[in-house]
Amino acid sequence: MFGKAKSVFTNMFEINLYKKGDKMGLYDRQKTLNLNKNQSLLIVGTGGIGFWVCKFAVMSGINKIYAFDDDVIEEHNLNRLDLPISFLGENKAEVTKRICTKLRPDITFISMPYKYNGQQTDTDWLVDCTDKLKAQEENQKFAKESGTKYFKAGYDGESFSLHNIVAEWGEAVDGYTIVPSWVVPAVIIAALAVAKIMKYPEAEIATNLSNLLKGKF
Q: What is the β-pairing status of strands 205-208 and 159-163?
């Protein structure tokens, strides 16, 4: 009986605090992490990785993003993207904008439903989430010419990497393989990409799920 009374008292105390407006702000719980939110991003490719990079970035406080992708959502993308089937056939960059601005209505999110060809965006980072080597080499060149920090985020099966220069690996001649493709490595590398942007700008990694779970990097 006493335990129940204590529980009711605790709940009433929490409710009174909430009514008084004594509650935490949106980013209060990450303040002590010293994350650099004052940055702008150019995301090239908003599929299995780029979609999550955008989403995690805006959730973390980044408020200016340009996203380029000329591709559309297909059924096979939905094993990596938390989207309903009603989004099939819609442009990936525009869908990413809709999701991100739903989460954070006050951000600036410019979606470009076409291939990135060096358009000037005056951003701090170019995050390359494409899967073809030729496109990666072009994106790296564009970033260098504009003085924008560049890195490549990619995965192939259970292997994933972040590299500050174009890294050619995987079985495909022009980039990463199409299958197998899974949400887990895609989300892991996207989260690590945002950590790199906001706190560890020089960091790189190349590993796989097996090594990661065994503590080997």
A: antiparallel
SS3 string, 73-112, reads CCHHHHHCCCCCHHHCCCEHHHHHHHHHHHHCCCCEEEEE
Angle at 115 between CA 113 and CA 116, to 5 degrees: 110
Instruction: Give the residue, 154 or 22, on which the prediction is more confident.
Output: 154
Within-domain flag for 125: yes
Q: Structural domain tally of the chain?
A: 1
Burial 129-160 (b: 16+ CB within 10 A, else e): bbbebebbebbbebbeebebbbbbbbbbbbbb
pLDDT of residue 176: 54
The reply to whether the predicted model has a pTM over 0.85 is yes
Give me the sign of the Cα torsion angle 196, 64, 54, 139: negative
Cβ atoms of 186 and 136 closer than 8 Å: no
Q: How far apart are CA 185 and CA 188, in angstroms?
A: 5
Q: Are 169 and 156 in contact (CB under 8 A)?
A: yes
3-state secondary structure of 13: helix
Q: What is the CATH classification number for the domain harbouring 78?
A: 3.40.50.720
- Separation of alpha carbons 60 and 29, rounded Å: 11
Rounded CA separation 130/152 (Å): 8
Q: How far apart are CA 30 and CA 33, in angstroms?
A: 5
Which domain covers residue 103, as residue numbers? 39-213
How does pLDDT run across 115-136, given as a tens digit for each residue?
A: 999 999 999 999 999 989 999 9
